[in-house]
Amino acid sequence: MEKDNKNIHRGKVLHEILKNEPRRIKDIVEDAGYKYGTFYKHKNNPELSYEIIAKYGKIIGRDLSIEFPEMAEYPSLAVVKTGYSNKGSLDLKNELEELKEKYSNFLNKHNSILESNIQLREENIRLKEQIAELKTKS
To answer: Where do runs of H (alpha helix) occur along the chain?
Structure first.
C-alpha cells in the first residue's frame, strides 16, 4: 500500500481488507450481490469505484473511508453504526425513562448502603471506646 492516497490500488487494498475478515471472501462477495468471478475483476481494478467498495464495507459492517479517505466526500456511502438507527422517537423516550428509573433505583440503594455504612462505623467507634474503657478498668 502506498502512502499517497491518489495512487492507491483500490482493488488490492479491498482484497487485503477482505482477506483479514473472519468470513470467507466468497461469502462476502455473494452477500454483496456479486459472483465470485467478479471479485477478481474488482481486486485487479486500481480505480475500483467507491460505490462497490462501500457495498463490501456494508456487508462486513465496516466504514472503509478510513482506508479510502476520499469516500468521506460521499456521505451516502458511509457505513454508520448506531444502536438507534431503527428505533423510533417513542422507543427512545421509553428507553430513556427506563434508564432514568433504573438509575434512580440504584442511587437510592447506594444512598441506603452509605447510611448503613455510617451507622456501622459509628457503632464500631462506640465498641472500640467501650473495649478501651474495659481494658483500663482491668
So the answer is: 10-19, 25-31, 36-43, 50-60, 89-137
Closest CA to 33 of 59, 63, 68, 7: 59
List the Cα angle 16/21/22 in 5-degree steps.
Answer: 145
Backbone phi and psi for residue 30, each to the nearest 5 degrees, phi listed first: -65, -40
The CA distance from 52 to 17, in Å, is 14
**Residue 9 near residue 47 (C-beta atoms within 8 A):** no
Query: 52-96 pLDDT, tens per residue?
Result: 998 998 899 888 888 888 887 776 666 554 444 445 677 788 888
With cell 490500488, the residue in question is 9
Q: Tell me: the pLDDT tens digits for 18-59?
A: 999 999 999 999 999 999 899 999 999 999 999 999 899 889
Grouping H, G, I as helix, E, B as strand and the rest as coil, residue 63 is: coil
Residue 82 vs residues 29, 78, 86, 102: alpha-carbon distances, Å: 24, 12, 9, 22
